[in-house]
Amino acid sequence: MFLDIVKMPLKGTGGLDYGCRIVRIFRMNCFLKVYGCQMNAADAHLVSRLLAEAGINQVSGSNEADAVVLLTCSVRQRAEDRAAGFARTMRGEGKKVILAGCMGRLRGKELIDGGIADFVLGPDDYRAIPSLVLGKSALPQRPSPNLETYSDLLPSGNNPVSASLAVMRGCNNYCTYCVVPYARGPERSVPYADLERQIRHLLDKGIKQIFLLGQNVLAYHREGMEFIDLVERVARLEGLERLGFLTSHPRDLSREAVQRMAGIPQLLHLFHLPLQSASNDVLKRMGRGYGIAEYEERVAWVREAFPDTYLTTDLLVGFPGETERDYQLTLDAVDRIGFDFAYMFAYSERPGTRAADMGNQVAVPERKRRLAQLIEHQNAITRRSAERLVGAEAEVFVTAPAPRGEGAMLAEMKNTRLVILNHNTRLGEKLKARLVGLAGWSILAEPC
Ligand code: SAH
Ligand code: SF4
Ligand code: F3S
Questions:
Q1: Cα 29 to ligand 3 centre (Å)
Q2: Domains of the chain
Q3: Beta strand 242-246 with 225-226: parallel, antiparallel or unpaired?
Q4: pLDDT tens sequence across 20-44
Q5: Is residue 228 in contact with ligand 3, taking CB distance under 6 Å?
Q6: b (16+ CB within 10 A) / e for 308-322
């Protein structure tokens, strides 16, 4: 509990002014913890705003908290286990636990029955969080209509020069391994007018770089606007210097869109194109809607249009029925394509998804073996991709103080590759730098 001393005006009947008196207000202290993807990270800013508007004090550690709000993820079992473990510890310490987000939607009642949380709610019910923290109301009675976009809320972030904004929510793809469509509900795009208002608000606050987010952002469509139309329009807004987007489903990337993107000077040269597997059999059973040849064709379009592309991907090994040969095809494709970076996962059965009911589940130790070998393989490629840059010059955009190192700053190249800049300067500044070497995985840069 947090004690606030405030001056309250005293008004008599008929508006007579009796001066002021000093009163003490007890404010709830709330700790917000976030798991999962960029979408959850962006949602955390919405929840922070809702908490602040309700007069709830947000604290940076759980020790002083009366209530804990968790924005959870269910994409893999490990993500659920971590959140459940933390929630149990917090309840053990006598704190009120509100478990929100994807796991809240999917596990609901079983978390309450299991004594893991006091309240659970899904990604479309964040507006209920402040009253639950304050103990003013119970959960929303009606099931959520699955159409929430929060587009009336003005976003606030914690980086003064860079922000993310969800332009669409939910997913209709139902890849057979994935829980997101069940957790986040059907796909819905935010009307352009709402997005422009939110983006102008961010630009007015000094934001220069914006990432447009969606589980499948290329599928944005609203009022006759497709994603590429949206990108072109947003890029024209005064004050926006850098514009990125995440995450793209390779199936939805067209050659025409890539060519139009090449004409947008503000666009960041980052393409995150999750491949998952390079075996056409596996891709088919995953329901991804592309084969490896089509995927590589898209990579070629992107690299042709943006020669300095930072190409990243997601890879998933140990999907049901993945043979050693299927897995080798993925290793071969990783060599051939040369991703600059990859997020790599071992398949995790998700209850309710179609893949969980497939035969031929790969034994868990074998999934882990394949993952460990893939990581080793890709790490060498990631390293070579960074080493190739040493000696080059690049324009960098300064985004944050470096976590360690006196006066050093974190900065991003045009393709979002991160460098540690040995120079103390303002956030949001753009300057020319020489890439001088590597320290571990980080690229070191000096101003030219
Ligand atoms: N919308 C994004 C993915 C969101 S989930 C897209 O389509 O690319 C992020 C990544 O988690 C996926 O790309 C996949 O590689 C991984 N993932 C999803 N479900 C998984 C599961 N059941 N087990 C392991 N990894 C999974
Ligand atoms: Fe999941 Fe597929 Fe939707 Fe991505 S596109 S969120 S992997 S169902
Ligand atoms: Fe996880 Fe939900 Fe994101 S399941 S990956 S937090 S959409």
A1: 26
A2: 26-134 (3.40.50.2300), 162-387 (3.80.30.20), 393-447 (2.40.50.140)
A3: unpaired
A4: 666 556 678 999 999 999 999 999 9
A5: no
A6: ebbbbbebbbbbbeb
Closest C-alpha among 287, 261, 263, 260 to residue 276:
287
Residue with tokens 């079992």: 77
Backbone angles phi, psi at 101, to 5 degrees: 95, -160
Mutate to test the pocket of ligand 1, among 35, 39, 73, 75 (most ligand atoms within 8 A of CB): 75
| Residue 164 CA, ligand 1 centroid: distance in Å | 20
Q: What is the pTM of this model?
A: 0.93
Q: Give per-residue pLDDT as tens, 196-229.
A: 999 999 999 999 999 999 999 999 999 999 999 9
Ligand closest to CA 36:
3
* C-alpha 222 to ligand 2 mean position (Å): 20
CB of 350 shorter than 6 A to ligand 2: no
pLDDT digits (tens, 9 = 90+) for 418-440: 999 999 999 999 999 999 999 88
